[in-house]
Amino acid sequence: MAGTMVSFKSNGSTASGYLATSESGKGPGIIVIQEWWGLVDHIKDVCNRFAKAGFTALAPDLYDGKATKSPDDAGKMMMALNIDEAAKKLNSAIEYLSNHEGVSTKKIGVVGFCMGGQLALYAATINTKVGATVDYYGIHPSVNPDFSKLEGPVLGFFGEKDKTTPKEAVEALEEKLKSAGKTYSFTIYPGTSHAFFNDTRPEVYNREAATDTWQKMIAFFKESF
């Protein structure tokens, strides 16, 4: 069952996102945060996969309808993203989802990919309704979460050959979480590159790692809230 585009109030205006409701009728709520490409079909498909697994998932559109396949354009859109505005949209998306009739839990899970991975961590520090966070190779130079405000556990997935989020960046993130006394678990997948979960990009997609992370993520969200 495919999802649909929805609108919700955000900071005195209207934001939009892709919503896929649990095929079982109700389920835990999950916010899915886009890569730097925008709200593309891959992210919508992730929401649909969550719905099949019994969750209700919402992917807010942080670029207001803009999307691209060009790395140069994607980089420009990512750097042009107003982080304060993005935070307001994420907060609004969490509030919208937590009150949706298709959501059965008081807490919300958040997962993000690439740019969205870092924003997922950020969302978890600005809204107490976030009960668990999954970071897929997160990176954004302008996003610096205050981990002292993080309440739920973090699951992180990274690629050994990821030049965008190298081992040093992963270790730095780990140190911040450790220093803040937070619960986390990171896995670095051997031989994988940045965006190894994205099955629309055969040049980087790794089926074995993607399948393993999906199974671990589903179990993590079911156990965490």
From TrEMBL:
Biased composition annotated in UniProt, kind: Polar residues: 7-21
Enzyme class: hydrolase
Keywords from the UniProt entry: Hydrolase
Acyltransferase is among the record's keywords: no
Gene3D superfamilies per UniProt: alpha/beta hydrolase
Sequence ranges assigned to domain Dienelactone hydrolase in this UniProt record: 17-223
Chain segments carrying region Disordered: 1-21
Annotated SUPFAM superfamilies: alpha/beta-Hydrolases (SSF53474)
Keyword Hydrolase set for record: yes
UniProt EC number: 3.1.-.-
MF annotations from Gene Ontology: hydrolase activity
PANTHER family, sorted: ALPHA_BETA-HYDROLASES SUPERFAMILY PROTEIN (PTHR46623:SF6), CARBOXYMETHYLENEBUTENOLIDASE-RELATED (PTHR46623)
Protein name: Dienelactone hydrolase family protein
